[in-house]
Structures are given as C-alpha cells and as structure tokens.
Design a protein that fits this description.
There is one protein chain. This protein has five helices and six strands. By secondary structure, it is an alpha+beta fold. Strands 1, 2, 3, 4, 5 and 6 form a six-stranded antiparallel beta sheet that branches.
Length: 187
C-alpha cells in the first residue's frame, strides 16, 4: 500500500521547513517500518523507489517547484528510472534518503537519489521526471522561467548522458496501431 500518511507528513514538514535551493540536497531521516519489508525481511525493492518519491516531494516543495506546478495547473510524472541495490535494509532501520537534481535537458529533470544506512549506500537511483500539462510535457525552460530560474542548466554528468543514450537505444513498443478499416476487394 502507498504510504499516504508518511507522504502527508513529509509534505507538511517541507511546507513549513527551511527553503532549499533547486540544486541543493534534500536529506530525509526515515524509519523502515513493517509495512516496508518483503518476505525476505528487508526493505522491499519497490519500496526503495516509493520512499524516493518522498525525497522528490521534499525537494520539490522546499525549492518552490511544487508551488509553481500547482499555480500553473500542471502535474509531475516519472518518465524512467534506473536503480541499483547494494546492501540489505532490515526492518526498523533508520535510513537517510538523499535527493538532488543533477541536471536537465529540454524535457526532463534528472534526480539522483540514495538510501543510506550507517554510512553505506544501500540503493541509488537515477530518476527522470517531467512537468506535464493537458497537452503533454511542459518544456523545462518554461518551468524554470516560472520558478524564476531561467537558464539553469548544470552540465549533465557523463554517466547520466550515457544512461540517456542507452534509454534511447532500448526497444520500446511502437505507437498503438490505428483502427483503420480494410477495404473489401472489388468483385
């Protein structure tokens, strides 16, 4: 089940917490509860990504991105992620979730997020997100202008550019076939 109460708590704390620059780092202290674990008695792999949502929420609220999104009637969406798992996280562990925007292109913001326990990185993910409107993806530059950050464009690290290239090579289903009517042969 999605952690709605935990999300509400993070959003509320972010709303009243200190402002964070868009290229700053969000750091959340979280407990791994019994609802976060799987049958192997560790933080579930899907829950790693769900907890990372919380870090993007915190960064988005504290940087002003979420305020702009609401004001403009836009939304937020995840367009892809790559995650690595390195160390198990047992239940009732205290972890740090670190989140930062490492760059952008014309359509996407790229977040690097890590879950750490006792100074060790247990999982890390690269997540690309977009701001969307009724007609599709809102260009990043338009979002940045609305945030008062026009031209913000830190250089994308090479490992992020390599991931973008690899995603471009990955097979993906073609667009939905059209429902064209076949003509009957003339008799």
């Amino acid at each position: 089940m999605y952690p709605y109460l935990r999300s509400a708590r993070v959003l509320l704390a972010a709303q009243f917490g200190p402002r964070l620059d868009f290229d700053g780092e969000s750091v959340l202290k979280l407990w791994v509860g019994l609802g976060d674990i799987d049958v192997f008695w560790e933080l579930n792999n899907g829950r790693h990504l769900t907890l990372m949502d919380l870090g993007r929420f915190d960064l988005g609220v504290r940087s002003g991105l979420v305020k702009v999104v609401h004001r403009e009637g836009w939304g937020l969406t995840v367009g892809g992620a790559s995650v690595r798992f390195r160390h198990r996280v047992p239940p009732l562990s205290r972890v740090l979730l670190r989140s930062r925007v490492v760059g952008r292109d014309d359509r996407w913001f790229y977040f690097h997020q890590k879950i750490e326990r006792r100074g060790r990185v247990c999982s890390a993910a690269l997540v690309r997100t977009a701001v969307v409107a009724n007609r599709g993806v809102v260009p990043v530059e338009r979002v940045l202008e609305a945030m008062g950050r026009p031209g913000w464009a830190p250089a994308l690290p090479e490992w992020v550019r390599a991931w973008i290239r690899a995603e471009g090579e990955r097979p993906w289903p073609a667009a939905r076939p059209t429902m064209e009517r076949k003509e009957e042969p003339a008799q």
